[in-house]
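This week, work through this protein record:
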Amino acid sequence: MHNIKDIRKDIDLFKNSLKKRFLEVDLKKILELDDENRKLIQKKENLEKEKKDISKSNDKTLFAKSKDISVQIDKLSKSQAEVKNELENILSTLPNLPLDDVPVGKDENSNFEESKSGTIPKFNFKAKSHYELGQDLGMLDFDLATKTTGSRFVFC
């Protein structure tokens, strides 16, 4: 999951990196949720400090005020948790940012071969792929993995 502090620090880098993934993300909403989350945390911390100060004063007349502050803290905690969860849900769905040297493209077909070493051996039989070998040897179960997690996963 992306760190919101990194996004805050360089929003343009984040936005441009996601464009390389052909994604349009509502960064305004992300930043608004982050701002709201931080404000709620600050309000909650201020109330907690006030409650602590009341507790230290040992003033019985402030007992009702302390109770009211506790209720406010609970409400703020719930609101902050909801905002934080919404923000984390959005951030967790975003893919990793590509490195600068990764070619821009819709899929792996846009990749290029940087180097090749050695010679490709010639066989007097049809070579099997790794997944064919794994299935033939009973070591990989692509069908079950596809049903469970989707494509491009395998169970050993």
Observations:
- The mean pLDDT is 88.
- The chain has two domains: 4-93, 122-156.
